[in-house]
Amino acid sequence: MGIEIKIEHLTKSFGRQMIWDDVSLTLPAGEISVMLGPSGTGKSVLLKTLIGLLKPDRGSVIIEGTDIAGCSRAELFEIRQLFGVLFQDGAMFGSMSLYDNVAFPLREHTNKGETEIRGIVMEKMDLVGLKGAEMKLPGEISGGMRKRAGLARALVLDPEILLIDEPDSGLDPVRTSFINQLFVDLNAQIDATFLIVTHDIHTARTIPDNIGLLYHRHLAMFGPREMLLSSQEPVVRQFLNAQRVGPIGMSEEKDADELAAEEGHELPPLPPIPLQLEPSNGIPRRSQRAPGEWCRANGVVPPAGSFTDSISPSAIGV
Ligand SMILES: Nc1ncnc2c1ncn2[C@@H]1O[C@H](COP(=O)(O)OP(=O)(O)OP(=O)(O)O)[C@@H](O)[C@H]1O
Ligand SMILES: [Mg+2]
């Protein structure tokens, strides 16, 4: 059914480098959330903190009543079995075939025999479009294939929580569409709680139920997609619409001169909010809200043309 993750006042630094401070948010059970943020804002560090690979300086990550940040190793080992994780670099064992990489969590965490393991591995390899590549080594395949193999491995334990770091970097647009559809279908099937880190604005606008944005060492905003996609908050607006005008510059923040030069610049209107991608069988996901529901409930007028079918990616500048 998916499990809620409650993140409270999380703070992380490496030495004197503060990564983010006082991050609080709840990933609702069974929903898909996307985390955005300029490169280096600590998205991958956040994912690693959520599974206890990195310890925060302060704050807690509560999963089923256990605080990941302060629990024992034994408790952490238990809790980790709820997770499927796709690391940004795929994190494959270089000397093992894709088959053995994908089978690894099953051999490590279950008592299943090799026949049963084979069935599960082949099913997941098929799901991510890697049938036939089982015996290849990670070094012999493309970056996109490694990503998909990592995803197959993240799925073998039927996770309640899926953390996915940039599934679409290094994937061609067609594969990205397939993988996005796969996430939506998977979520409909297994109701797991998803957190996807992406730089792909089209993915961020069409897949999730919730969107978050890390910026300048804090969580700028986290909430239902319609809240962020209709937000006038300068950083959110700039990032979700991939615009140059706004507080974010090439080296994270613009200086006062750059910002002054932009003053008086008319911002383009917000692009329409697209419909959410639906499961391929046409049956809405459990967590899916009706288009415009959040806007209506909160008295927000969505951008003109929102929630119509006729939105092409070019209309949102991607
Ligand atoms: N183990 C570590 N030790 C020291 N510093 C680290 C460590 N891991 C990450 N960092 C630093 O933390 C910051 C955030 O890194 P992170 O990988 O989370 O960024 P990101 O938001 O995922 O960026 P990208 O979009 O490029 O993947 C970077 O400055 C990085 O150098
Ligand atoms: Mg990263």
Automatic annotation (TrEMBL):
Would I find Transport among this entry's keywords?
A: yes
* All copies of domain ABC transporter, residue ranges: 5-241
Q: Which domain of life is it from?
A: Bacteria
Q: Which GO-annotated molecular functions does the record name?
A: ATP binding; ATP hydrolysis activity
What residue spans carry the region label Disordered?
Answer: 255-291
Which Pfam family is one of those matched by this entry? ABC_tran
Keywords of the record, alphabetical order, are: ATP-binding, Nucleotide-binding, Transport
Give the matching SMART domains.
Answer: AAA
Q: Among its keywords, does the record have Signal?
A: no
The entry's protein name is ABC transporter ATP-binding protein
Q: Which organism is it from?
A: Nocardioides immobilis
